[in-house]
Design a protein that fits this description.
Length: about 260
């Protein structure tokens, strides 16, 4: 009995991660570091997902997706400093929101009371009047993203900056999104500041993609198995529990203690 129990605990727990973007690489690497037997499946021929870089004219490292790595978490910052420090330029990054048919209007972003000084006079007067009528109670009771943002910045700023973005990025309207999405996404500051004020922030010295490539290398060094060009096409279930992952003609059995992370 004792022997059997020992044998069981010696057996490595298995984990299967679908997608080698930032989410999949982070979770696969962490689980491999913790001693799990991890296989990471990626449908493309490279890792990175949205985070990748390419050469364009005189620019050797253009990011086609995310570029700013930022975190308020000290443990994460320490990992980036010690294990990826040579791949980063740490700095403060200032954001502008570009508007106008000719893309010739620049607004400080994130928004702040201070930045309203640079708005056209009539818009600023209107916005300040709206801000003086904001209602904290209605904001606390907001059910939708729209209701929350309306009480955070007023109707004019909401229309200018916050209505179209969720629709464009996530394909849902601000009425379909619940209010709890807003505090993480929408910021209205008192004074001007850099985009990720109070956080560790950096861009990739050789493009964002290089950082994710190193994560993949570390994952493999930890004994992880990286399967590129392998798209998940289906799952098999019994009693509502996943028993196998299907990759085209290949079927990978998942035991009862197997972990699956789908990104
Ligand atoms: C233009 C742009 C700029 C951005 N800027 C920033 C920024 O500066 N800072 C920031 O923090 N965030 C930024 N973001 C957001 C950030 O890019 C994403 O939140 C993040 O990259 C998402 O990572 P992910 O791993 O969740 O998804 P993804 O990167 O999409 O990875 C998913 C992976 O799964 C793979 N996959 C999909 N289907 C299957 C399947 N069936 N089988 C196997 N594999 C599959 C895909 O090929 C992909 O590699 C930006 C996004 C964009 C588009």
């Amino acid at each position: 009995m004792v022997k059997q129990a020992k044998k069981k605990s010696d057996k490595k727990r298995k984990a299967f991660v679908i997608g080698a973007g930032m989410s999949g690489l982070s979770s696969a690497l962490r689980m491999a570091e913790l001693g799990l037997e991890v296989t990471l499946f990626e449908k493309d021929s490279t890792v990175g997902g949205m985070a990748g870089s390419f050469a364009w004219g005189e620019f050797p490292h253009m990011d086609h997706g995310p570029h700013i790595f930022h975190t308020p978490d000290e443990r994460q910052a320490k990992i980036w400093d010690t294990e990826y420090g040579d791949l980063f330029y740490k700095n403060e990054f200032w954001g502008k929101n570009v508007k106008g048919e000719k893309f010739d209007q620049y607004y400080d972003y994130p928004l702040s009371i201070d930045s309203l000084r640079d708005f056209p006079e009539d818009a600023r007067v209107k916005i300040l009047r709206e801000i003086s009528h904001l209602d904290e109670t209605r904001k606390a009771e907001a059910k939708t993203y729209r209701e929350y943002v309306l009480e955070l910045v007023g109707p004019t700023l909401m229309e200018m900056f916050f209505i179209r973005y969720p629709q464009k990025l996530w394909g849902v309207t601000v009425d379909e999104m619940t209010a709890n999405w807003a505090p993480k996404r929408v910021n209205f500051r008192r004074s001007k500041g850099h985009f990720h004020a109070g956080q560790w922030s950096a861009v990739g010295k050789y493009g964002a993609g290089k950082v994710l490539e190193r994560m993949a290398e570390k994952f493999v060094e930890q004994g992880g198995v990286l399967r590129l060009n392998t798209a998940l096409t289906g799952i098999e279930k019994r009693d509502d529990v996943i028993t196998a992952l299907v990759f085209g003609k290949e079927r990978v059995a998942v035991g009862p203690s197997g972990h699956i992370v789908s990104t």
